[in-house]
């Protein structure tokens, strides 16, 4: 054994030994630009992929490549996206079960309540911010209307259907089906009652036609045409129908994993092997993410270059909708650089921009992939390893926020709905603006974490204020870019929520740590880990005791000790 760390002992602490290195190995510490390069290597790799994709896409546009060439350029990016999405489901399941099982049921409830209140408040604020900016800048220009682009079909999309679908997906009836399909409401034509060709009316008409000759046949033919027109008019009646579409029902899986992990933590030692299993799965997935991230320069550059090459008339589209893009970008930057930083400083009392700097890598990944779910593995790695967040909080908050917290989507829906109303010459009063505020918030929280999901939810808000839903087609040309801007807001909102919830839950987390220490001390009293009562044999203690009954921790006493220690500090 080597000599003790004298320097650390002078200051009252002793550094833990490095188990991964030999005791006689020299401790080489990088300094200067080498240390900076080592700490930010993955960030530079991600940034190089984004810049390379933009340069490659803009350079190849003058060549007017055909569809096959663009598909081949986009193919590595497609494979990169598929690998990232492959790890989402096992990552969400393992993180939620291991995270919720490490906390008690009361603690899970407190964290969930704080998380949901934070998400709902920030989504409501983003919707209000979007309304204020779109009214101030007024990007909607009626001259952008193109009658040729209007569709003749105007389908009604109701907020009630969106909210009911949200409940159906939270409570799935089949967990295996939830991994590949999600429920949604569609409107189908009401099936009309077709009359048989041999019913009584048809036979009577045929008999009359035979009696009256040619004139009777012509009358029968006219009657049948009128009857067919009546049947066609009956078929346009739309009825609701709940169907299933392709896509992972992440909300249902998140709810099941939260409940499963919470009850798993209550059975004590009998469920520890299951907790260890899911914790090991989480660690394996994170190691796989580290390997996949070295594909970032090729994957992200391919995604961005392919998207730039596939847009027709890029300059014309940007020129026509430039004020709409500027409005959304200003809202996103204001929220990221001012509001988020203020919230972090008020609650956490630390430098918010240092925290923001540590999230640049997952932010670039979210921008490139236009999906919060696809960036979730990288977000986990940065939050746990780089920013040293409590894994019990990140495993709980990040998967929930990936599916519920859509700050950028709320801002986009509010801006886009009023933008379309301005193009149509509509004047919205206070009641319509309040409707936009509430429906944008509710619709954003029912949004899926997949690219361009907000365009579907935009129809909900447009229907609520009776705006023309056909004009949504104007936004398809720029949504590939605006979607990437607002996705960074969604991802950062999840991370800042985890930081705020961790700070608000610090005392409870410290109490759980103290309870764990007390249990370890009690666990060492006997070989089988349970204390023996007077007159009780070790075999009886083993057969009758479980973890939840063997250790009774007075949480109020623990909290008082924590408070006293904080006062001393």
General description of the model:
- The chain has 569 residues and is mainly α.
- The protein has 27 helices and two strands.
- It has a two-stranded antiparallel sheet with strand order 1-2.
- α12 packs across α18 (376-386).
Globular, elongated, flat, extended or rod-shaped: what is the shape?
globular
| Helix fraction by DSSP (H/I, runs of at least 4) | 55-70%
Question: How many E-type strands?
Answer: 2
Sketch the major β-sheet: 2 strands, antiparallel
> Uncertain regions: pLDDT < 50 for 5+ in a row?
1-26, 146-156, 194-204, 206-211, 229-233, 529-556
Secondary-structure class: mainly alpha
pLDDT averaged over residues: 75
User: What is the CA-atom radius of gyration, in angstroms?
Assistant: 30 Å
* Cα separation of the termini: 34 Å
Strand order of the largest sheet: 1-2
Q: Can you count the helices? A: 27
> Per DSSP, what share of the residues sits in E-state strands of 2 or more residues?
under 5%
Query: SSE order in H/E notation?
Result: HHHHHHHHEHHEHHHHHHHHHHHHHHHHH
From the structure provided, what is the oligomeric state, counting identical versus distinct chains?
single chain
């Amino acid at each position: 054994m080597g000599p003790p760390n004298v320097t650390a002992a002078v200051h009252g602490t002793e550094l833990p030994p490095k188990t991964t290195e030999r005791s006689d190995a020299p401790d080489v510490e990088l300094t200067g630009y080498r240390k900076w390069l080592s700490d930010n290597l993955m960030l530079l790799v991600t940034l190089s992929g984004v810049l390379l994709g933009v340069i490659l896409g803009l350079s190849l546009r003058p060549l007017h490549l055909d569809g096959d060439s663009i598909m081949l350029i986009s193919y590595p990016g497609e494979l990169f996206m598929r690998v990232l999405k492959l790890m989402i489901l096992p990552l969400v399941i393992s993180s939620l079960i291991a995270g919720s099982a490490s906390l008690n049921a009361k603690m899970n409830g407190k964290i969930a309540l704080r998380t949901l209140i934070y998400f709902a408040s920030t989504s409501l604020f983003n919707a209000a911010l979007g309304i204020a900016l779109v009214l101030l800048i007024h990007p909607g220009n009626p001259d952008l209307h193109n009658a040729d682009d209007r569709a003749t079909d105007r389908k009604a999309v109701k907020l009630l259907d969106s909210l009911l679908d949200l409940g159906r997906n939270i409570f799935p009836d089949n967990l295996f089906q939830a991994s590949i399909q999600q429920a949604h409401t569609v409107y189908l034509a009401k099936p009309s009652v077709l009359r048989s060709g041999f019913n009584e009316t048809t036979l009577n008409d045929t008999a009359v036609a035979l009696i009256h000759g040619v004139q009777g046949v012509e009358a029968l033919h006219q009657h049948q045409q009128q009857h067919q027109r009546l049947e066609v008019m009956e078929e346009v009646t739309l009825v609701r129908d709940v169907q299933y579409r392709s896509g992972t029902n992440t909300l249902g899986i998140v709810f099941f994993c939260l409940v499963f992990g919470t009850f798993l933590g209550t059975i004590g030692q009998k469920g520890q092997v299951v907790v260890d299993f899911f914790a090991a799965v989480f660690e394996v997935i994170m190691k796989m993410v580290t390997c996949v991230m070295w594909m970032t320069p090729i994957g992200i550059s391919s995604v961005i270059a392919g998207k730039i090459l596939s847009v027709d008339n890029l300059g014309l589209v940007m020129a026509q909708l430039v004020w709409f893009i500027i409005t959304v970008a200003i809202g996103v930057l204001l929220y990221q650089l001012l509001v988020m930083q203020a919230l972090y400083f008020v609650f956490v009392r630390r430098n918010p921009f240092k925290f923001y700097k540590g999230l640049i890598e997952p932010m670039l990944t979210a921008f490139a992939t236009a999906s919060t779910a696809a960036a979730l593995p990288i977000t986990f790695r940065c939050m746990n390893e780089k920013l040293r967040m409590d894994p019990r909080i990140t495993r709980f908050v990040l998967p929930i926020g990936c599916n519920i917290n859509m700050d950028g989507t709320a801002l986009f829906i509010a801006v886009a709905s009023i933008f379309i109303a301005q193009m149509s010459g509509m004047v919205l009063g206070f009641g319509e603006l309040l409707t936009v505020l509430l429906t944008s918030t509710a619709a954003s929280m029912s949004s899926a974490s997949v690219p361009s999901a907000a365009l579907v939810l935009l129809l909900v808000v447009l229907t609520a204020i009776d705006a023309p839903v056909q004009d949504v087609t104007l936004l398809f040309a720029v949504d590939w870019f605006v979607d990437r801007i607002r996705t960074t807001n969604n991802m950062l909102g999840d991370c800042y929520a985890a930081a705020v919830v961790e700070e608000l839950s610090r005392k409870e987390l410290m109490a759980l740590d103290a309870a764990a220490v007390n249990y370890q001390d009690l666990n060492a009293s006997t070989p089988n880990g349970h204390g023996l009562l007077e007159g009780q044999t070790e075999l009886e203690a083993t057969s009758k005791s479980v973890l939840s009954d063997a250790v009774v921790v007075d949480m109020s006493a623990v909290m008082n000790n924590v408070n006293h220690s904080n006062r001393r500090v």
